[in-house]
Design goal:
Elements (H helix, E strand, L loop, with lengths): L7 H17 L2 H4 L1 H8 L3 H12 L6 H14 L3 H18 L4 H9 L11 H17 L3 H20 L9 H13 L3 H14 L8 H9 L3 H10 L12 E10 L4 E8 L6 E8 L8 E4 L2 E4 L1 E5 H38 L2 H13 L14 E10 L1 E9 L2 E9 L4 E8 L1
Parallel strand pairs: 1-10
Antiparallel strand pairs: 1-7, 2-3, 4-5, 4-8, 6-7, 8-9
């Protein structure tokens, strides 16, 4: 007599594993409360909730560290942020070493089952935030180390890995600020010029570019810049004058949503992630003493994120085809082993129910880096930043012949 194999326990077991795996990987849903507190400027509650995630699933640990580091940065706890982001950076580099067993596991499940490695631009943002952390603590040399790391990493991505990226204007402009603060005017001009090529619409932020072109005797560059920015004044700094650069980390970074796309030549549609903006662009108003400026957008992370993700979509689709083939093989094997075509078909359906795109991302990042720049007599000043009618004020010191950096996080 042929022995029938019951399909009930096998199907329930398979479904249960898939449900548990899906829940375990849903970092975005689990951290909704922490993001709500963060966006309400309740940083203590946001940190309390995100710290549970740092001790949570290993597959999401990098994201938890990135969010914790960003929250500490936004709260003005710069030294604490440096420590957490350094840990995240180290973990990110370790995760870049691909685990064969982990990759094999994702062929039968989905991308959410592997440890989140971070998008390329997110790895660059670690160093950008570290540079701002160090700048706020007055540690220019450490800040410049981080700026150089950004530039070197992205150079490697472009030159060695042939990725369609470009340098980050915020990193180059910040490099100019830090070099100028140290009195290294040639290096400052080079970084300001690189930022201007990436973001030609610098407006009043081009002031040091024209001034330093004059001071470093780059006559031809000065003439070209003057034609581009005829209304920007470029008088030398007064002997008792200093500068203040206000960095506004504005809005909310784009979120990943699920979209369907075909691999070239294939018939089947596959789920892939796609970025969707969460924040309509608005300029912050910055007031210092009697001066007022609309902040200028130097880098939009929405644009950067889209380019970096688009570069990966082809590889995602190729892996999705391989995953579909493996799942079809597993389902066929179950059908043959159980002598049940129905169970084989049900196995295939269940395996593909869990084929959603990986929608995890570093959601606590800003949408834009906006800058405003002021020349002021040495002294202490109240800096007011207003975005969407929600003003915030903080005191900063401007020292003669130095460039101070003031960072504000606004949503």
């Amino acid at each position: 007599m042929e022995r029938r194999i019951s399909s009930g326990p096998a199907v329930l077991g398979c479904a249960g594993i898939l449900v548990l795996a899906s829940c375990a990987g849903d970092y975005v849903a689990r951290t909704g409360g922490a993001r709500q507190a963060y966006q309400s400027y309740d940083y203590n509650r946001a940190l309390s909730e995100i710290e549970h995630e740092v001790r949570g699933p290993e597959v999401d640990r990098l994201l938890a560290l990135l969010d914790e580091g960003m929250i500490l940065h936004a709260a003005g706890r710069y030294q604490d942020s440096i420590g957490v982001l350094a840990e995240a950076d180290k973990l990110s580099q370790q995760l870049d070493v691909v685990s064969i067993s982990e990759e094999a596991k994702t062929l039968i499940s989905n991308e959410r089952e592997r440890a989140y490695r971070g998008e390329d631009f997110e790895k660059l943002m670690i160093s950008v935030l570290q540079a701002l952390n160090y700048a706020e603590l007055g540690k220019d040399e450490d800040a410049l180390v981080e700026v150089r790391r950004v530039n070197e990493r992205i150079r490697k991505m472009i030159v060695d890995e042939k990725k369609p990226y470009e340098q980050l204007a915020i990193a180059r402009y910040l490099g100019g600020v830090l070099w100028e603060d140290q009195g290294e005017l040639d290096s400052a001009f080079i970084d300001y010029q690189a930022a201007q090529k990436l973001q030609p619409n610098l407006g009043p932020l081009a002031e040091p570019l024209l001034r330093l072109a004059k001071e470093t005797q780059r006559d031809e560059a000065y003439r070209e810049l003057k034609q581009t920015y005829p209304d920007v004044l470029d008088q030398p700094l007064g002997k008792d004058e200093g500068q203040l650069v206000v960095v506004v980390e504005a809005g909310l970074s784009p979120i990943k949503i699920s979209a369907q796309q075909r691999y070239p030549g294939a018939v089947q549609l596959f789920d892939v992630p796609k970025y969707q903006d969460r924040w309509p662009t608005r300029s912050a108003l910055v007031r210092v003493d009697q001066q007022e400026q609309q902040a200028t957008t130097v880098t939009s992370l929405g644009s950067v994120a889209e380019i970096h993700l688009e570069d990966r979509v082809g590889r995602m689709l190729a892996k999705a085809i391989a995953r579909a083939a493996v799942k079809a093989g597993v389902a066929a094997g179950v059908g043959e082993a159980t002598k049940s075509k129905e169970l084989g078909l049900l196995t295939f359906v269940l395996l593909n129910l869990n084929s959603q795109a990986d929608l995890r991302s570093w959601l606590s990042l800003p949408a834009e880096f906006q800058l405003a720049r002021f020349r002021l007599p040495a002294g202490r000043y109240q800096v007011l930043v207003e975005l969407d009618g929600a003003p915030v004020q903080q005191e900063f010191e401007v020292r003669r012949r130095r460039v101070a950096v003031a960072v504000f996080r606004r949503y």
